[in-house]
Amino acid sequence: MAEADGKASELNGGSEEPDPGEDQRGEGDASTATEGQSGSQAAPKKAGDSAKDKPMPDAEGERVPGEGEEEEDTDSMDGSGLYSLNEEGERDGEGGRRERVKERDAVKRAARKRNRPSDGTAHHSSSSELEEEEEEEQEEEDEQAMDVWLGAELRDLGRPSWRAVPSLRLREIGRGSHQFVRRVCGARGLVQRLELQGRLERHTGCVNTLHFNPSGTRLASGSDDLRVVVWDWARRRAELEFDSGHKSNVFQAKFLPHSGDSTLAMCARDGQIRVAELSAMQRCKNTKRVAQHKGAAHKLALEPDSPCCFLSAGEDAVVFGIDLRLDRPANKLVVVKEGDKKVGLYTIFVNPVNTHHFAVGGRDQYVRIYDQRKINENDNNGVLKKFCPSHLVSSESKTNITCLLYSHDGTELLTSYNDEDIYLFDSSHSDGADYCRRYKGHRNNATVKGVNFYGPSSEFVISGSDCGHIYLWDKVSACIVQFMEGDRGGVVNCLEPHPHLPGLATSGLDHDVKLWAPTAENPTGLKGLKDVMKKNKRERDEDTVRHGDQYDTQLLWFLMRHMRNRRSQRTRREGAEGDTDESWSSPDSSDEEDGGPDHVQCMSS
């Protein structure tokens, strides 16, 4: 706790001095002053601030102190201007920004027209110059359309909900101390200060999964090297490393809750669902197969209070309910279909409040919610309700859901689409309801990419990107509040917030695990964000145009790799009568992998 006090005090250094930018900013010339300072990070006045929050300037533009004015906390001044896509740091209304862009472009076009030669001297102007001018005009129009798209559907970033100095003072007198850490973990000021703390290096392949144990003292990671490592992440050392028993890329490894960190559930490309029993002597006793999908199994869904029950979803469209107390643990709950067509699954999640409900997503655009107590496949294929962004319902593009999850209280569903955006749904809405929020700027194309909430009350949305960066959005406003370079390999897939502390672990195509903590002296400047977002959008649009060719190339790549793996497996099995692993078999299990995926977890593997 002493470290928390010291850290919070650092974050609030000079918190009792007024912001110098505020004293110089008159109400009438705020925009001009901002434009006159290139790269200025002064926080502009928010539209929602009332007169009693900030004194009105006098006639000469200087601030008149209020009699009962509260001291301004510099940690709560979190650089609101940094969240705008406008490089001058303005955050005024969207309509005003559009008008300025239009006026600026109109002035440029008028100037070019004035400089063009008259009809009498037209022979002096080459056609190439005219073409260059037309190209410049087209580029400016495209740039304007891009700015409008990036700025659409954003809300004003509200005032910070946590301020360090007042919170520390209250804790010193014993008020609100039990909520102090929780509020710190969800503070925007700390999210803005996240930076790389260190790396955990042990794997020899892409790291596809990360999971903290419930107490947050251990971190499990799984990789394409078929091994699982349990880390003492605080000391940066591996406590346990073992062979998963899988025959292809490990996609998830999770500690079962209330198991004393002695049970890990795992799934992989080979379709197997396996359970590892760990001992207190830092070794793995054994791994057992408890279910088998007829295709890759990407995700497991834990029941928050159960040490023996969880769900699995596979590309064979099957959802298994697994109960380790039974002789035959795997029970087929549902085969997900759209009409008569099976829908391969990439993701599944259990509602943390109502554990009878679970949501799945996969090779189409629909989020499907089921109730385990009343799945009747003859009635709407057993679906309780479905969600989908309205513009994707009739879309001709092949849109898949790569990851979804519920918020901390089960009221919201966050969904990431491949080569599309991230959408937030209200889980209490009726069947067919549209999304509530949309989060833009990243790129989700090359891998089956994850998404997550950050903060104890799901205050932020976090995702990796094909550009190698990590994005954090404020959930309510959909504004980007943090932007960090994640993987040198170019793709960040997995993001795991710590359950009790302000920090997270990430992984991707690099062979290491990266740890992040809010130790930066100053908030992020979001340097280069606008250019990266535009680059991601352009590449996405270009790939959409040539989607067919890209899909054929990717499918051919997978088929060649699949045939090579099957040939090597057949060679190893010659002379063997069957699988020698100790396993519990399900009547629905199969050792065959029929039906290759449209997307792969790690393209470089």
Secondary structure topology:
Elements: H1 2-11, H2 20-23, H3 30-35, H4 94-115, H5 127-151, H6 164-172, H7 180-185, H8 188-191, E1 194-201, E2 207-212, E3 219-223, E4 227-232, E5 237-243, E6 250-255, E7 263-268, E8 272-278, E9 284-292, E10 297-302, E11 309-314, E12 318-323, E13 330-335, E14 337-338, E15 341-342, E16 345-350, E17 357-362, E18 367-371, E19 385-387, H9 390-393, E20 401-406, E21 412-417, E22 422-426, E23 437-439, E24 451-454, E25 460-463, E26 469-474, E27 480-485, E28 492-497, E29 504-508, E30 512-518, H10 529-545, H11 547-573
Antiparallel strand pairs: 1-30, 2-3, 3-4, 4-5, 6-7, 7-8, 8-9, 10-11, 11-12, 12-13, 14-15, 16-17, 17-18, 18-19, 20-21, 21-22, 22-23, 24-25, 25-26, 26-27, 28-29, 29-30
Helix pairs in contact: 4-5
Estimate the mean pLDDT confidence: 78
CATH class of the domain at 195-540: Mainly Beta
User: For the terminal residues, how far apart are their CA atoms?
Assistant: 43 Å
Number of separate strands: 30
CA-based shape: globular
Structural class: alpha+beta
Q: Please identify, by name, the CATH architecture of the domain at 195-540.
A: 7 Propeller
Query: Looking across the biggest beta sheet, what order are the strands in?
Result: 1-30-29-28
Biased composition (Polar residues): 31-41
Keywords: Repeat, WD repeat
GO cellular component, one term: Cul4-RING E3 ubiquitin ligase complex
Family: Belongs to the WD repeat DCAF8 family.
